[in-house]
Automatic annotation (TrEMBL):
Lineage: Bacteria, Bacillati, Mycoplasmatota, Mollicutes, Acholeplasmatales
Entry-linked PANTHER family: 3-OXOACYL-[ACYL-CARRIER-PROTEIN] REDUCTASE, SHORT-CHAIN DEHYDROGENASES/REDUCTASES FAMILY MEMBER
Protein name: Glucose 1-dehydrogenase
EC numbers for this chain: 1.1.1.47
Gene Ontology terms, MF aspect: glucose 1-dehydrogenase [NAD(P)+] activity
């Protein structure tokens, strides 16, 4: 028996990193998994490797029509959704002087508005099941400011607040909503889009002395998606190696 037997999950940003690790773990635990992303080659290859209980869909999380299409196809293939993992996100690291309005808007549309759309479009499907679990991936940047990351900070603080509000709104529908706050995790996003100076500082600031692995964050996401966390909603769960301690 798996912890997610017969449950249907949508995982955004699932082509690599935390999303990919979560998809692999969810399949192992018995779920039907819809992987979404804009990196089609990676997403298709991963879904194929996971077998018949997984499928990949191209999905821009900032577009409502894309969300509506993903939900419609998911219900057609696997049935109503039980779990939503709002994982898709980007980071732009620039000094304040270099930041543009376009940078800030892009971060908002993907990291914040995409999470909003995901919750609003999918919760009626969860009502059909009679219960649901939503996990929004924020960051330790949702707790404290960091130089060069104004737009990213803003979006991740917003996800934290949205999660709490949604948890209160959805409680009567038996839908739980929690946020996960990774520290520095060894993913393509952090390794390819963050400066070496910042990486070195992150390691010094982490008491465990290393970056986390996507699989470690996936375990936290699994906990919040299954009945092990049945009395947890509206809360933050931190996976940061002690960085915020």
């Amino acid at each position: 028996m798996g912890k997610l037997d017969h449950k249907v999950a949508i995982i955004t940003g699932a082509a690599q990193g935390i999303g990919a690790a979560t998809a692999q773990l969810f399949i192992k635990e018995g779920a039907f998994v819809v992987l979404t992303d804009v990196q089609d080659d990676k997403g298709k290859a991963l879904a194929k490797s996971l077998g018949d209980k997984a499928i990949y869909m191209h999905h821009d999380v900032s577009i409502r029509k894309d969300w509506e299409h993903v939900l419609k196809e998911t219900e057609k293939l696997f049935g109503p959704v039980s779990i939503l993992i709002n994982n898709a996100g980007i980071v732009i690291q620039k000094s304040l002087e270099e930041y543009t309005d376009e940078d800030f808007h892009k971060l908002y549309m993907i990291n914040q508005f995409g999470v909003y759309l995901g919750m609003m479009v999918t919760y009626p499907s969860m009502e059909k099941v009679g219960r649901g679990a939503i996990v929004n991936i924020s960051s330790t940047s949702g707790f404290r400011g960091k130089a060069g990351l104004m737009g990213y900070n803003a979006s991740k603080f917003a996800v934290r607040g949205m999660t709490k509000s949604a948890a209160l709104d959805f409680a009567s529908k038996n839908i739980r909503v929690n946020s996960v706050h990774p520290g520095f995790i060894n993913t393509p996003m952090t390794l390819d889009h963050i400066s070496d100076e910042y990486k070195e500082k992150a390691m010094k600031d982490t008491p465990l002395g290393r970056g986390g692995e996507p699989e470690e964050v996936a375990q936290m996401i699994l906990f919040l998606s299954c009945d092990d966390s049945s009395f947890s909603t509206g809360s933050e769960f931190i996976t940061d190696g002690g960085r915020l301690a």
